Give the backbone structure.
Amino acid sequence: MRAIAEAAGVALGNAYYYFGSKEHLIQEFYRRTHREHLAAAAGVLAEEVEFKERLLGVMRAKVDTIMPYHRFAGVLFKSAADPASPLNPFSVESAPLRAEATALFAVVVEGSRLRLGRELRAALPGLLWTYHMGVVLFWIHDVSPGCRRTYRLVERSVDLVARLVALSRLPPLRPLTRAALRLVDDPAGED
Amino acid sequence: MRAIAEAAGVALGNAYYYFGSKEHLIQEFYRRTHREHLAAAAGVLAEEVEFKERLLGVMRAKVDTIMPYHRFAGVLFKSAADPASPLNPFSVESAPLRAEATALFAVVVEGSRLRLGRELRAALPGLLWTYHMGVVLFWIHDVSPGCRRTYRLVERSVDLVARLVALSRLPPLRPLTRAALRLVDDPAGED
DNA sequence: GTCTATAGCAAGATAGAC
DNA sequence: GTCTATCTTGCTATAGAC
């Protein structure tokens, strides 16, 4: 809070005039970066129809968007890591924003020429959100100049994801696809 | 440190007679649970020759081993999350233990009847270590009774991994396998 | 609305008696 | 070796003047 207040050019106490708590402030920060991500991704999503290119554009836009905050990524992650924290991406408090982010990946899929089975189509946005969290996790630890390694990871992993998804419809891979969907579906007995 | 000292039945100050810092204590804790994991996994590794069963046994042993410490998983993860912390699994300080854990997965592979290409054989232990960290991450957040969901994740994901690895040799999947290996290999230009 | 000052607390670590 | 007592720090959050 001290660092943020200083960066904002206001006194520490003043931050609490606008935000009820540290958690509220950070939640708002996350909302803001998500809106920035939406804006940064709008271009490719309007132009591209190829799934792979759409995903690549969205992932690059993601890294571009959060890059200015790489310095704070460590502290933010420390807060988010606590399973009991509302800032944890899997918490109920994070559910709305998580849903919005997942919706973006749904747009990536829906706006593409990708042909998919019903089940995979339903599950894919959530899977892509998880994938994107993995990339962010990598980015947090990335100390390479300009986070070049993260960008390379994005390029290569998007390629891999696109291949996997495309192949998933092939008959020999159907059982594997079904197994993967069962893994993520978790039907009925939630616990 | 206070909680640990209390659980150990000693005074807070006394903990610092045995451990130079919190980090040293936790590192030792990690070493200890790893040794316990080795012991718990020894049985299956001695008996089974099927890759899938070996991996399943090792993963179940892992969850069994860490289960008593589920209460502390949150705090421990908070420490480990900081990229600057020596407790971070990707830190240099964690490198020796990470290597030992990876070696265990090498044993899983080597002791099995699995036929693999040279490159995948070399990369697989590290990939399995990463996979196992993902399972641990899930376990940290798992609040289901007895962490049933984690055990189910292990069963299903091991099945999936085994299928994937088995299929990786098939000619139509070779390019995908090569792409996956490139993803993880990161040759030459480390950054 | 913004400031300064400070309350309150949790946690890591140390001092020094026994 | 083990204890109690305490130091120090770092942080969230609040009080109250302006």
Residues 22-47 of chain A form the longest helix (26 residues). Chain A has one domain: 22-183. The interface with chain B takes residues 73-75, 77-78, 80-84, 88, 90, 140-141, 143-145, 148-149, 152-153, 156-157, 159-160, 163-164, 167, 170, 172-173, 175-176, 179-180, 182-183, 186, 190-191 of chain A (CB under 8 Å).
